[in-house]
Amino acid sequence: MVFTILFLVTLFLAIMETAIPYLIKRTVVFGVTIPEQHTREAKLAGYKKGYSLIVLCFSLVALLVFAVWGIQGNPSEDQLFLVGTAILFAIMLVSLACYIYFHAKTTQLKRQEKWGEDVKQVQVTDLSVRSQDEMLPWYMYLFPMLVTLGVIVYTAIQYPALPEQIPTHWGPSGQPDAFTTKSPISVISLPLILLVMQGMFLMINETTKRSGIKLSATSTEASRIRQLTLRKYSSWFMLLISLLMTMLFSFLQLSTIHEGLFGEGMMLLFPLVFLLVILGGTLVFAFKVGRTGKDMGANLVEGIRDIDEDQYWKGGLFYFNKNDPSIFVEKRFGVGWTLNFANPKGYLLVLGPIIAILVLSFLI
Amino acid sequence: MIIQIEPQSDIPIYTQLTNRIIEGIARGEIKRGDSLPSVRSLAGDLGVNMHTVNKSYHELEKRGIIRIVPKSGAMIQPPMVTTQESPQYLHINDELKPVIAEALVLGMKAEQIEELVSLVIQDLKRMSNIE
Fold first, then answer.
1. What is the secondary structure of B61-128 as a DSSP string?
2. What is the pLDDT of residues A33-92, one digit of tens each?
3. What pLDDT is stored for residue B72 in this prediction?
4. What is chain A's Cα-based Rg?
5. Which residues in chain B have their CB less than 8 angstroms from residue A128's CB?
6. What is the ipTM for the molecules in this complex?
7. Pair type for strands B66-69 and B73-76
8. Could you give the CA distance from residue A135 to residue B84 in angstroms, rounded to a whole number?
9. What domains are defined for chain B?
10. Where are the alpha helices (DSSP H) in A37-172?
11. Which of A58, A158, A193, B95 is 20 to 30 A removed from A209 (C-alpha atoms)?
């Protein structure tokens, strides 16, 4: 079981890391802004290929070794977990190292070739783009929260029937393996954590909606479709995660209230299905958004290019722009969002829920 | 309507934004009675400071082009009947004077200037007539 989960997660990570250069917009290569006119240079294509090949080969070897050892070596669950996690981190480290190398190469190439140095930089927006935004309204995120409140009320009603030991952790077999003593807080700690996370999803959706819709001056249509697609699917995907988490947490809470309500098979299957749907959903999301607008041409206007934002992207990965009121911006290397680290509200939004959950767990 | 700004230009961003919005209204790309995006979202979309957009909106309001209604946004105002005493008329007069003076100093003839003005008007009206 542990082996299957770890293998799937590693495979998922390998696919994502390999595909990234082909899922990001063409005007940013390894975190470096490339003017539209030069995005089809052979050297850049070579860098992308190099990155993907190295990451792919390393991941395949790692997966193969892990599979052979996992099936034939009969390791214990702890050993599996340790090695599996180590392999996950190794793939991430190799990808990061490759990224840093090719980021430096691309930066150097851009400087050497003086790409876009004498071209006027412009920033565009479309006043009507906001009316085309299809992100979900905030109240959609209230439905899972209502379910959670229902679970809390139900737990309160069932309080006398609850066991003296309340599970706080579930092992890979789906059975609880850590407990705490029963108290009015500990019995609802699980739905409370869920509520915090659901609230966080609601806030992230709202802040993303208020963040800028960034259009490109040289490929306005392609960038518009990509931004709108990213926003719409992020919003749907986040609601899906919120709903799935509500189902999983409610399922665990119900199995605590009514011991033996679900068979061992269900206890094993439910979290696994949850994991598979999340991983699969992430892949679909990344490829769907990543391929959007790829085949659309650019409206090349002589003498202009998009603003070179490289100065705001530290290492091509971290966005610091004091002027931009956006809290979330599209990632440069990867599909999805990253924080504007110059905006303190962003820290609050991400750290707040984590602190709330930590405080909750210490209270129990 | 597409708004294009040049952050590295000598003209301040808020002036570029103000001019571009006025031009958009003149061309009929934004209709009267429409509202402009909120300060926060326009600033986010352009990646510029909120104060910049705010300054531009207040400039437009001062000139009588938009009306800022708290909570509901910036509405494009219907055209005003401008008599020669109205402050808008005086403002246009003040703005035009140095430009025309410059043209005269550079040696342009009165007819040339008049022709230029009507060409600019034609250009601005072309789009709105198609619609």
1. HHTTSEEEETTTEEEEPPPP---TTSHHHHHHHHHHHHHHHHHHHTT--HHHHHHHHHHHHHHHHHHH
2. 998 888 889 999 999 999 999 999 999 999 999 999 988 888 888 899 899 999 999 999
3. 78
4. 23
5. 1
6. 0.83
7. antiparallel
8. 49
9. 13-76 (1.10.10.10), 87-130 (no CATH)
10. 42-72, 77-113, 142-157
11. A193
Residues 71-130 of B with CB under 8 A from A: none
Instruction: Name the residue among A114, A254, A140 with its Cα closest to residue A198.
Output: A140
Residue of A nearest to B13 (CA): A123
Question: Which residue carries 């739905």 as its tokens?
Answer: A191
Cα separation, B98 vs B112, in Å, equals 16
Distance CA A276, CA A272 (A): 6
- Binary contact (A212, B4; C-beta < 8 A): no
Question: What confidence score (pLDDT) does residue A299 get?
Answer: 67
- The answer to whether the Cα torsion of B118, B119, B122, B123 is positive or negative is negative
Q: Which two structure tokens, joined as six digits, stand for A146?
A: 């209502």
CB contact at 8 A, A328 and A282:
no
Rounded distance, CA A331 to CA A228, Å? 14
Tell me, yes or no, if A121 comes closer than 8 A to chain B by beta carbon: yes
Q: Which residues pair with A170 in a beta bridge?
A: A176
Residue A61 is which amino acid? V
- Are A320 and A314 in contact, with CB atoms under 8 Å apart? yes
d(CA B3, CA A123) in angstroms, rounded, equals 8
Supply the pLDDT for residue A175. Answer: 84
**Unique residue bearing structure tokens 């679909």:** A284
Give B131's pLDDT tier (boundaries 50, 70, 90): very low
